[in-house]
Each structure stands twice: as C-alpha cells, then as structure tokens.
Amino acid sequence: MPSSEITPEEQAELDKALYDALNPLASALRQRASGLPADRMWAADPVDVALSVLSAWKVVDAEVKRLTAIAAGTAGSYGASYEQMGAVWGITRQGARKKWPDAVTRAAAVALELWGGTAELTPSSGGWGWTGKGADGTSGPADGGERFATREEAAAHAGAFLKEHALAQS
What we know:
By secondary structure, the protein is of the alpha+beta class.
C-alpha cells in the first residue's frame, strides 16, 4: 500500500483548494448570521468573523467524515478488511471497526442447484471460491481452487462446472 504522506507542494495545493472551497461557504454563513449586505459582511468584530470561518470548517469536517464513511463502506464492499482499513487510516483493526461499524459485512455462503448438481459459494478475505458436485458425481474444483473477486464471478464458474457435469438428457 503506498504511503499516504504528501509532499510539501501537494500540501500547499490542498490548502489552497480547501480555502478556495471554504470561502464561499464561510461568506454565506457570515452573511446569514450578520444580516449585512455582501459588501459589508466582513466588516464586523474580528471574533465574529473568525467564528464564522470556524463554523464553515465545522460543516466541511462533517462532510469529510460522511464521505470518509462512504469510502470505507466502498472498500469493505470490495472485500477490504478492517485490518486493511485501519492500516491505511493509521489505526488498529478494532479502531477501524469502531470508526466504521457497517463498512465490512460478513458475506454468507450461497448455495446453487443447477442441472441436477449443487455448489456452494464461499467468501474469504481473498475473494470468493466454490465447491460443488455435478449430477454425474464429479466434485470440483480441485483443492486450492481459484479465488474470484466477486460472488457473481465464482457463481459463473460454478455454474459452468455444474452444466458440464449434468447428466445427459435423452
């Protein structure tokens, strides 16, 4: 996993982008709070002006937390573990689970019955696998079977196996 450290140049660009995004929000909050016209809204007690900027940062902070939770959920839906998310965030696995409790869902095994055979799709940290028995009695896949990124991909391979090992139709 690449380092999340940023260069001084990247930090300067990030600061500028954040301030550029914050200014319209801080201005809108300040204008609503002061009731002053746009050309005079910053002509107030410096404490009030600074507090309006702080208020805008609070809104940004809440939005970053919301977007971070969405990103964690997306990572979890693709199979990332709490251990991996914690490592990226610089916290423990337990800390990641506490921070994003719904990000990782425990996928359940799925049973397939096709062409007279059965297969079971099973999740693991390495993706999805399957085991099955065709209608002709053939078992598959071999031990150490291939892992697939998605449940659907594993189901397609299991289904192809079951079709290949179906009993001949008269």
